[in-house]
């Protein structure tokens, strides 16, 4: 998956991955893809809900060892 920006939010607990994701998205333009790396298991539901409520598209998720990876297209 090709991303325009990568956000490392590993080691952070809720709500910090969402706060950092929101800040990173504000710096991007519509259509760009943000790749987010997290270790907080609760982020899976949180990022999916946040993407939908913000008008963004959760393109894909993957697990790489203990790191959850998300790709979100800015809406």
Count the strands? 4
Please give the share of residues in helix: 25-40%
Low-confidence stretches: none
Structural class: alpha+beta
Produce a short descriptive summary:
This protein has two helices and four strands, in the order βαβαββ. With 75 residues, the protein is an alpha+beta fold.
Written account of the structure:
The protein is α+β, with helices and mostly antiparallel strands. 29% of the residues lie in helices and 35% in strands. The chain has helices spanning 16-26, 43-53, and strands spanning 5-9, 33-38, 57-64, 67-73. A four-stranded mixed sheet has the order 1-2-4-3, with helices on one face. Helix 1 links the parallel strand 1 (5-9) and strand 2 (33-38). The chain is globular, with a radius of gyration of 11 Å. The mean pLDDT is 95.
């Amino acid at each position: 998956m090709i991303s325009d920006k990568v956000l490392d939010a590993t080691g952070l607990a809720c709500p910090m991955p969402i706060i950092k994701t929101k800040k990173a998205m504000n710096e991007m333009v519509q259509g760009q893809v943000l790749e987010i790396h997290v270790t907080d298991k609760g982020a899976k539901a949180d990022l999916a809900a946040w993407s939908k409520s913000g008008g963004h598209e959760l393109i894909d998720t993957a697990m790489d060892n203990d790191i959850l990876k998300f790709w979100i297209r800015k809406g």
